[in-house]
Write a structure and sequence with these properties.
With 304 residues, the protein is an alpha/beta fold. Helix content is 19%, strand content 18%.
Length: 304
């Protein structure tokens, strides 16, 4: 993040608080002491987002300014998450937006330096769009938002900002769009769980650049095209589930040769969508919606 000094010229900084003195409807009145905070917000979040009174970014900024506590980027980001996803209606929101340190809020874990490393808000009725500001939590290692009512796309800034992320769990939501190439910025990613969404497009070959990936679960989306052989270049890959999509063709020999612990595709039935001789589990979509253990011939249910 940029330092205060490099953000604005002295002349620009002198007018910021005057221009937006009533940004928070007098609660509080913006004064010179708020200049540095406003500068950081405008630079990293965008002036329009901050001053628009209907935005979660605006609500989070004014909440922080009202609190009188020292401004910290991660506390602001968490407040944006709360306002953007109807935090007041979550099943559990213990200590959120209280005066307590954000590291004590439900689902938030920090390291010994007080930096957020884990955000676990799974299955608590988080509803709305995933805010791109999460990408400002640069120390985050585990992001778990599964089993909620999230919509929209995976924000580009989330993928470019979370370079230390190891676990991305966005499964069982209502997310759509594609898996964009920006995901290659997540060099430390070990587990990618996106199953049970509406993600479309093709499986990006760029995933092969994430050399630490061990598990990829893209089950029950709307992915199309063929399965990229480049995935075989992932040295630590052990689990790959691609069933209940619109994928076609043959499972690449390179992937078969890896002898994964679990490989699942739509390879069951008279006319399987994917031909796969090495899959552990073969599935068939509508109308049957069944999966079979290829070794035993027995029907199996997800999770495998």
């Amino acid at each position: 993040l940029l330092s205060w000094a490099t953000l604005f010229t002295v002349t620009e900084a002198a007018t910021v608080y005057q221009k937006y003195a009533n940004m928070c409807n007098g609660m509080p009145t913006i004064t010179r002491k708020h200049d540095k905070t406003l500068q950081w917000l405008f630079q990293n979040v965008g002036e329009i987002n901050i001053v628009s009174k209907s935005s979660p970014q605006h609500e989070a900024a004014c909440w922080m300014l009202r609190s009188g506590k020292k401004f910290t980027p991660q506390r602001f980001v968490l407040a944006v998450v709360y306002y953007a996803t109807k935090g007041a209606k979550w099943d559990v929101n213990t200590d959120w937006l209280t005066s307590k340190n954000e590291c004590t809020w439900y689902g938030v874990e920090c390291n010994s330096f007080g930096k957020v490393i884990n955000l676990d808000l799974g299955y608590i009725k988080v509803d709305g769009l995933v805010p791109r500001e999460i990408g400002l939590l640069t120390e985050l290692q585990d992001l778990d938002l599964h089993g909620n009512d999230l919509q929209g796309v995976i924000p580009h800034k989330l993928m470019t900002g979370l370079k230390k992320l190891e676990y991305l769990r966005l499964q069982m939501n209502g997310m759509f769009g594609a898996i964009h190439k920006e995901i290659v910025n997540m060099k430390n990613l070990k587990q990618l769980f996106l199953y049970g969404n509406y993600i479309a497009g093709t499986i990006p070959k760029d995933l092969a650049q994430l050399k630490k990936l061990e598990m990829i679960d893209l089950y029950a989306n709307q992915l199309s095209g063929t399965i990229p052989s480049e995935l075989a270049k992932l040295p630590n890959l052990k689990y790959l589930d691609l069933h209940d999509n619109n994928l076609v063709g043959t499972m690449p020999k390179e992937i078969c040769d890896k002898k994964l612990d679990m490989l699942v595709a739509d390879c069951y039935g008279r006319n399987p969508e994917v031909k796969c001789d090495c899959c552990h589990i073969c599935c068939e979509g509508l109308p049957k919606m069944i999966c079979v253990d290829k070794k035993t011939g027995n029907l199996v249910n997800y999770p495998f």
